Amino acid sequence: MNVYLTYNPQPATRNPQLFITGSKSETNRLLLLQALYPNLQLENTSNSDDSEVMSKALQNAQPVTRNPQLVDVHHAGTAMRFLTAYFAMQEEKEVVLTGSARMKERPIQILVDALRQLGAEIRYEEKEGFPPLRIKGKKISKSKVSLPAHVSSQYISALLLIAPKLEHGIELTLEGKITSVPYIQMTLGLLNEIGVKTSFTGNTIKVNPQPATRNPQTITVESDWSSASYWYSIIALSEIGTDITLSSYKKNSLQGDSALVQIYKDFGVETIFENNSILLRKRNNPQPTTHNLQLNNSPDIAQTIAVTCFGLGLGCRLTGLHTLKIKETDRLEALKNELTKLGAVISVTNDSLILESYSPLLEGCPKDGVAIKTYQDHRMAMAFAPLALKVPIVIEEAEVVSKSYPTFWDDLKSVGFTVSEL
Known about the structure:
Radius of gyration: 22 Å
Distance between the termini: 7 Å
Strand content: 15-25%
Shape: globular
């Protein structure tokens, strides 16, 4: 499904309010912990495809059978990594863990090697180092393991999440520069919340074993900051005085993408925390300059920021983006391809993006809209949508947003965007 986006400002109710469902990152971690500790209850979980896939895989996991069970996570990278660790410690159970064609191109050898260090039995069904995986679950008694820390924090979190149910917990040594520390801190924070003792000193993380949680416990998942990023972009590209309220968010968030609060100040957006919600308001137009941002701790908002800068006519230099090469698509090349269609002057490396300031904005774009290819990547679709405030945009394969934010197009309609299927 392709959609044609335009914006027709209406004399609408001031300060529209939107409810954003729970963080996909928190939800997927908590779903795995719930599978390990069934007395854990969850509220405000994500309605994303990724979380649905994670939940289904855990709920439908069959008891021990003679033949291996096929578990298909489709495009859900987080589920692939977390479930690899989970099934590795499910004694006597055998599964074949697979996914989409793109998933079979996404590396997983670092995690598999680490699990093998602990004694796990995993082999590759097709290409060495990539899914699908055949996993024979077994009791894991080793506790010391090391892995390179610079590729994906999800490998680290996968190990940490199963650690409290291992006989001796885990002592994990991280080699090299650590990527996406806030996501590791999120995992440790959630473990602490259910009563698991952890420590993170230097490059060593320790998680103590905990056979069972003490009492029934309910955890409310905070709304997703990555989903909020598209509304930050919309407010940044809007007229001064435009505002919107999003719920529910915490000032002291575990999510690395809460860095939006500080980053978007430079784009004229003020964030006000009130009653478990955030009010976003356009305060001023930013000065023409080039913004230098290190996004090692929040790479998922890079696409949104790049498009915001382009829409405002600003330049930017975004670094720390090496993990974007192995996401749903090569996000750096995808950004370069699609922004160039709109007239941007942009260059990318293996870990950075440089966008030159551009004025006048979007000059010469056709009235019937430039078609933005999404590459089966939800964040490409949503990051480019705010440009409809400036010029008609066509988003190809628009249904891809269901991966993380299924109600995105409906929410856009509610604030004055016209979303027409082509």
